[in-house]
Amino acid sequence: MKAEKIRELDGPELQRNLADMGEQLFRLKFQINMGQMEGVKKYRTLKKDRARMLGILRERELDPAKAQAAAEAAAKAKKKPAAKRKKKEE
Questions:
Q1: Residues in CB range of 39: below 8 A, 6 or more apart
Q2: Which of 2, 13, 39, 61 is most buried (most C-beta within 10 Å)?
Q3: Is-contact 55 6, C-beta < 8 A?
Q4: What is the pLDDT along the chain (90 residues), one digit of tens a residue?
Q5: In this structure, what CATH number is given to the domain that contains residue 7?
Q6: Does 74 reside within a domain?
Q7: What is the pTM of this model?
Q8: Structural domain includes residue 8
Q9: What angle do CA 80, 60, 62 make, to 5 degrees?
Q10: CB 17 within 8 A of CB 53
């Protein structure tokens, strides 16, 4: 999950996603320790996504105004590429 998408989430939704990821990480770690090595790549990506989420939560905690500005900028940036895609399709 990209940081822009994470910044668009509100606080409670972000907390819910973190809890779900924690549960998934526990299950994957358990599988890996049991000898099923199929989930190693997914485990790594989940750890990175969780770290991004924790970083953004900390960012919001330290400076709520700056975090709000970053969320608005991410929303604007998300809208611009969609407009460019429409022009290319025409």
A1: 28, 31, 32
A2: 39
A3: no
A4: 788 888 888 888 889 999 999 999 999 988 888 887 777 888 899 999 999 999 988 988 888 787 777 777 767 766 765 555 555 555
A5: 1.10.287
A6: yes
A7: 0.67
A8: yes
A9: 135
A10: yes
